[in-house]
Task: inverse folding
């Protein structure tokens, strides 16, 4: 039992980081992580013993986020708008945005691209692992990654256009 | 090998951004980027954004784990929930056993009571009363077939019941036929004829197959509803209305006598 606790707790900081990047709210991020850990404990015996624990936990958390949490967030329009306003800075501040607020720009990407950038770019998962976590072929991971980075660049370059599209 | 892999693809650039290009390939990519400043700038921007994102989230990784995420605490909460659920399940099981026992005892008592009260007639009365309460409140579709199609209605119900039926004439009590409907019962099909009076008060005549030889009227009172039921030649009959016993009795007698006289009720064949 202490073993399980030890194994899981090593992964908690990264899970919290991923959750926070998805939700942008510290409390709710910890709610998501708690859900993830509860599910992991209840399915502990079902996991492949030879499988990678870290990838397994991230898969659980990502699926939980997609199935439950994302919808909750969509209802919170004020928060989303606030983020969009932050990102939609005038062109001359582009450099500042580039340096300081990629996280806010990330918010404007579809969940799949967002998760991909976080898993590969921040959590250092291999392309293979990211493909498994997101349930997509490796080829798709490569093309989506390229598209996600392209969008991230264009958000920085044309923050205002994206803002308009986002607010609708 | 070098010749075939020389062409730099988009995925090579992504791998380069992520620092995942192999040593040999990395040199090739760098050579390519040296040739194309536009691409080099783009890749550099992507690298900077990647690094910025990591930096922005770095603080989160360094935070101490809050107590509510300690595995020991989550496990304790799980155990507590599990215990509570088991307790609830156990309580549910006890309730179920008590319920089943009560049901069994209740059924026994019912059987004893109904055995005394001639079950067939009582059952007909109960069925008729239930059907009355279901459809008498119906505003949109009180009947399935309207009295305008009386011939068709009676032909249809007769065929389904396996016994020729006529609609008793209750005009002298102020009731006229509205129509009727076919109903399911535990003894096959049942027929319900509905009547109303000028103020909209409703009354039903209910017929279905029934075993028994007791021709005596059985009276059943349920809330506002009165029912007289009897059994005759393999069929059970019931007259039900929201009227008093005294008011309903002459109507029930009229249906019964009409039946015997061939004037109302079931035709003699």
Result:
């Amino acid at each position: 039992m202490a073993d399980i606790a030890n194994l899981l707790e090593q992964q908690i900081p990264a899970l919290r980081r991923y959750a926070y990047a998805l939700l942008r709210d510290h409390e709710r991020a910890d709610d998501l992580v708690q859900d993830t850990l509860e599910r992991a404990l209840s399915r502990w015996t079902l996991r492949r013993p030879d499988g990678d624990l870290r990838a397994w936990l991230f898969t659980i958390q990502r699926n939980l986020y997609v199935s439950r949490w994302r919808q909750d967030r969509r209802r919170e329009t004020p928060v989303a708008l606030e983020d969009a306003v932050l990102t939609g800075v005038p062109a001359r501040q582009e450099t500042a945005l580039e340096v300081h607020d990629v996280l806010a720009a990330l918010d404007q990407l579809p969940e799949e691209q967002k998760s991909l950038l976080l898993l590969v770019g921040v959590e250092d998962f291999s392309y293979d692992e990211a493909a498994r976590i997101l349930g997509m072929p490796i080829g798709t991971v490569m093309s989506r990654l390229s598209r996600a980075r392209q969008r991230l660049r264009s958000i920085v370059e044309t923050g205002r256009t994206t803002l308009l599209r986002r607010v609708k | 090998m070098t010749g075939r892999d020389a062409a730099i693809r988009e995925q090579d650039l992504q791998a380069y951004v992520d620092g995942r290009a192999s040593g040999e390939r990395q040199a090739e990519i760098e050579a390519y980027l040296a040739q194309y400043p536009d691409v080099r700038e783009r890749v550099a921007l992507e690298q900077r954004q990647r690094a910025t994102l990591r930096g922005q989230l770095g603080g989160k990784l360094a935070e101490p784990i809050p107590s509510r995420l300690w595995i020991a605490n989550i496990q304790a909460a799980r155990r507590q929930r599990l215990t509570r659920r088991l307790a609830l399940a156990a309580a549910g099981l006890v309730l179920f056993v008590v319920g089943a026992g009560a049901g069994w005892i209740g059924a026994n008592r019912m059987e004893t009571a109904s055995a005394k009260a001639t079950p067939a007639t009582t059952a007909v009365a109960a069925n008729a009363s239930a059907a009355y309460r279901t459809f008498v409140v119906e505003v949109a579709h009180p009947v399935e077939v309207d009295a305008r199609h009386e011939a068709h209605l009676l032909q249809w119900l007769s065929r389904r019941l396996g016994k020729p039926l006529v609609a008793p004439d209750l005009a002298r009590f102020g009731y006229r036929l509205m129509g009727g409907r076919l109903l399911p019962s535990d003894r096959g099909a049942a027929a319900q004829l509905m009547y109303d009076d000028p103020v909209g008060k409703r009354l039903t005549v209910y017929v279905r197959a029934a075993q028994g030889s007791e021709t005596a009227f059985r009276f059943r009172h349920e809330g506002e509803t009165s029912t007289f039921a009897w059994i005759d030649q393999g069929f059970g009959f019931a007259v039900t209305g929201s009227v008093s016993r005294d008011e309903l009795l002459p109507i029930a007698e009229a249906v019964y006598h009409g039946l015997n006289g061939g004037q109302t009720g079931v035709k003699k064949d």
Chain B touches chain A through 33 residues (CB under 8 Å). Residues 2-62 of chain B form one domain. The longest strand of chain B covers residues 176-185. Confidence is low (pLDDT under 50) at residues 103-117, 261-269 of chain B.
